[in-house]
Amino acid sequence: AKAEEAAAKAEQAVAGLRAGVIAALESRDVPLPEDARERVLGCEDAAILQRWLLRALSAKTASEALGEGE
After folding, report:
1. Got the DSSP string for 5-19?
2. Which among 3, 12, 31, 60 has the fewest CB atoms less than 10 Å away?
3. Is residue 65 within 8 Å of residue 21, measured between CB atoms?
4. Is 68 exposed, middle or buried (0-12, 13-18, 19+ CB in 10 A)?
5. pLDDT tens digits, one per residue of 10-67
6. Which residue has the higher pLDDT, 69 or 33?
7. Torsion 45-48-54-59 (CA) sign
């Protein structure tokens, strides 16, 4: 039960990070092409999502926020 609870909390955290990346870009009127949106929504790695979120706060493009090869 504890493992399931921990997994659920981790998934909630990842989902929140995904939403944050998208919201940060959209709130700054940075265009978010469908392929970039799919990359964000498909990412399961919290560390990568955190990097993307920090970059999304100042990036001029989605490519800049998401970086290359991440």
Report:
1. HHHHHHHHHHHHHHH
2. 3
3. yes
4. exposed
5. 899 999 999 999 999 999 999 999 999 999 999 999 999 999 999 999 999 999 999 9
6. 33
7. negative
For 67: left if phi > 0, alpha if psi spans -120 to 50, otherwise beta; the answer is left
Q: How far is CA 44 from CA 2, 24, 29, in A?
A: 21, 18, 25
Within 10 Å of residue 1's Cβ, how many Cβ atoms?
5
Asked if 65 contacts 32 with a C-beta cutoff of 8 angstroms, the reply is no
Instruction: Using a cut of 0.70, tell me whether the model's pTM lies above it.
Output: yes
What pLDDT is recorded for position 42?
A: 97
